[in-house]
Amino acid sequence: MHQARTTRPRRTALLGAGALAATAVLLAGCSSSVGAPSAAPSGQKITLTVGDFGTFGYKEAGLFDAYMAAHPNITIKEDTTTAEADYWTALQTHLAAGSGMDDVQALEVGRIALATSDALSSAFVDLSKAPGVDKGDYLPWKWQQATTSDGRTIGLGTDVGPMAICYRQDLFQAAGLPSDPAAVSALWAGDWSKYVEQGKAFQAKAPKGTYFMDTATGLFNGVVSSSTQQYYKGGKLDYKDSPSVKSAWDLAMQADAAGLSEGLKEFDPPWQTAFAQSSFATTICPSWQQANIQKYSGTANAGKWNIAQAPAAGNWGGSFLAVPSSGKHRAEAEALVAWLTAPEQQAKVFQAVGNIPSNQGAYSLSAVSDYRNPYIGPNAPTGQIFSAAAKAIQPAETGPHAGDLQDDFSNGILLVEQNHKSAGDAWNTTVQQIDSSIQ
Amino acid sequence: MATPPDARHRQTWRSRLHRWDSKGSPYAFVAPFFLLFAAFGLFPLLYTGWLSLHQVSLYNVNQARWVGFQNYLDLFTGAPSRFFWNALRNTITLGTLSTVPQLAIAIGLAHLLNYRLRGRGFLRTALLAPYATSVAAATLVFALIFSPEGGMANWVIHLFGFGPVNWEAGKWTSQFAIATIVTWRWTGYNALIYLAAMQAVPGELYEAAAIDGAGRLRQFWHVTVPALRPTILFTVVISTIGATQLFGEPFLFGGQSGHQGGADNQYETLGVLMYDQGFHDSMLGRASAVAWTMFALLLLLGLANALIARRLRRAQ
To answer: Contact at 8 Å (CB) between A261 and A429?
Structure first.
């Protein structure tokens, strides 16, 4: 699925998929024919099992049925788990035992650094040599994430979580700011500190009881995610000296000191309630966040949200499909994975459940580029904003604890926003927390 | 003529079978419990103890590295010690905040229900309803009540002229909120135990007290409470064990930061710390060390309880 492991509850992922599925009904009119898959090897009847979690959208988009119709000798069984955490726990056990795995296994972006590590990567087939797979098709950074240090690519990207910024058009107007998506994007283009500056301009004339942002943790994640150097450098944790972590932290502190943030904890009930109460004007908006906005803001706020480009392109979430080397039908599984991650299929998944494709070929398909969200800024070029963000994302080094660190820093910012600690105390507590959680 | 050899053989066989039956059957009957205990109680306990002496990742349980007592040293004096002592303090304060009011209210309720009342049966059953509610459901509801955005708790204190409180963020406010959930869930359960014990108190004692002019409150203090002393001790022990293992309420109450007991670890209990170390930070060795420390703590509490119980018995 399409989410960072530690920062977004599984629940919202499902809700997100559900709400986007509703929008898919409107888009269902346009559909293209099933891409011609490669010839089925031998006439032998086999069953392929696909292990995944949450909503990958293959069933919803009718892809398994289409594949089985084109390959009469292949039966596909989806082995799906609701919660990614449960799925991963079971997969770990199977990996340790070396048996019990499905022919295809999905991997979440938060696990990919672990899966590509020396300890686990040998359990998966190198997909870069699979027939029909072309490295150039995929987003380079997405490809890189699933590639081991010795150059084996163990997973093909399914979807990504490019970030935009969702904003309340009515509140922007009330505060005398431009409210058209292009104009708003231009307000802060290229620089996160401009986003904070606009926040100050907003806050000066904002309607009483409204804040510029829901929480400064979103800002922090946005700054770090859109940087090429994040928490790791040269294979080692390097967050204390990382320039992006420092500037993200400073900007978040600045935003909090200027009173721009409502200080809500993302995804918790008060945060959800605040959407309905219209008490903040912007939130960091990875593709899957649209569903949350629609769900929590409710029908009363329909048409009030709009979507603009983020100051810099970054990614939050996304998954991969891998083929375990212990599988009995590896060749067939590789062919299935290659087909499922091809542009036409990813575009269909996007239409069905809203997952943004990781295959660059899909961005030029009208199903993706012409996509507009009927709830959020019906006239905003949503598909183009997300495709542009996805293409502009720069590769960044990641590591096994990257997700945990993102979590720890979000928490550190909450210490200032909610527990009223000083910036220095909060930093020290965060460092202690990280030091004690890594052995 | 003597008995045929095979008949004698049969007899001895039968008597031997009978002997085995009378000696062995009890063991066979209790065996399932002990086998299950060995598989699901003793083995995990010993395995956890073994793990606590290793550095071992959740991702590679087979690659454990022997570190001796390093995990315990880390816990008491190393990098995570700040969080361990904090969790221990929280466990004690949260335990006190929830156990004391819970038992006090329970005994009061039981005393009232012990009188003739209309709809007594219904009231007694209703007492158990919170206990039958799942932790998750109860915690969700209370999280809404204590929400800073339109929560009921803030509405109530607003009526008394106080400003809104961010319940979850403060150390004492959050612990108060969690203690409320625990108290709400367990008061009825304890009240029923007290009620059962009260029914065993001879009615003559109350009659005699009434003749001597004692009101209901005096009857409660001078007849009910002394007669209930062993029961009170029992509930104190059970509640203390429950409080030491407190996990579900703080974990769920914290939402996104529940795994570490709030952004500032302000309500992280030992149970939550164990989960955080083991399943969030994937350090099974250190989580096992927390588990064994909790186990040792409970053994100490059990010992203290046994001593107090002996004292009480002597005093009677």
So the answer is: no
CA distance A187 to chain B (A): 31
Whether B173 and chain A come into contact, CB under 8 Å, resolves to no
CA distance B106 to B127: 10
Contact B264 A419 (CB under 8 A): yes
Contact B264 A277 (CB under 8 A): no
- Per-residue pLDDT at A69: 95
Q: Which residues in chain B have their CB less than 8 angstroms from residue A433's CB?
A: 83, 260
Average of per-residue pLDDT across B197-202: 91
Inter-chain residue contact B283 with A429, CB threshold 8 Å: no
Q: How far is A352 from chain B (nearest CA, A)?
A: 29
CB pairs under 8 A between A and B: 77
- Predicted pLDDT of residue A181: 93
Instruction: Provide DSSP, B70-132.
Output: HHHHHHHHSTTHHHHHHHHHHHHHHHHHHHHHHHHHHHHHHHHHTS--TTHHHHHHHHHHHHH
By the 8 A CB rule, do A304 and A170 touch?
A: yes
Given the structure tokens 């081991």, which residue do they identify? A148
| CA separation, residue A363 to residues A158, A285, A318, A342, A358 (Å) | 13, 19, 16, 12, 9
- Whether residue A314 contacts residue A244, with contact meaning beta carbons closer than 8 Å, is answered with no
Burial of A331 (0-12, 13-18, 19+ CB in 10 A): middle
Residue B144 touches chain A, beta carbons under 8 Å: yes
Q: Which of A230, A268, A183, A206 is nearest to A394 (CA)?
A: A230
Question: What does the pLDDT profile of chain A (439 residues) look like in tens digits?
Answer: 444 333 334 334 434 444 444 444 333 333 333 333 444 445 689 999 999 988 888 988 999 999 999 999 999 999 988 777 778 878 877 887 778 899 999 998 888 988 998 878 889 999 998 988 989 999 988 999 999 989 999 999 999 999 999 999 999 999 999 999 999 999 999 999 999 999 999 999 999 999 999 999 999 999 999 999 999 998 899 999 999 999 999 999 999 999 999 999 888 888 988 999 999 999 999 888 888 898 899 999 999 999 999 999 999 888 999 999 999 999 999 999 999 999 999 999 988 887 899 999 999 898 898 888 889 988 899 999 999 999 899 888 888 888 788 889 999 999 999 989 999 999 999 999 998 888 7
Alpha carbon distance B232, B228 (integer Å): 6
Residue A267: closest C-alpha in chain B: B256
CA nearest B244: which of B61, B70, B91, B89?
Answer: B91
CA distance B89 to chain A (A): 18
Tell me the nearest-neighbour CA distance from B145 into chain A, angstroms.
11
- 3-class SS of residue A52: strand
B chain contacts of residue A6, beta-carbon cutoff 8 Å: 280
Q: Using DSSP, state whether A162 is helix, strand or coil.
A: strand
State the first-to-last Cα distance of chain B, in angstroms, to the nearest integer: 70
Decide if A429 and B61 are in contact by the 8 Å CB cutoff. Answer: no
- In chain B, the percentage of residues whose pLDDT exceeds 90 is 60
pLDDT value for B5: 58
B152 CB near a chain A CB, below 8 Å? no
Q: CA–CA separation, B64 vs A439, rounded Å?
A: 13
φ, ψ (nearest 5 deg) of residue A168: -90, 110
Burial class (CB in 10 A: 0-12, 13-18, 19+), A234: exposed
Nearest Cα of chain B lies from the Cα of A398 at a distance, in angstroms, of 17
User: Taking CB atoms and an 8 Å cutoff, what residues of chain A touch B255?
Assistant: 265, 267-269
Q: What is the pLDDT of residue A42?
A: 55
Span B211-232, average pLDDT: 89
Nearest to B149 among A9, A277, A415 (CB): A277
Find chain B residues with C-beta within 8 A of A119's C-beta: 59-60, 63
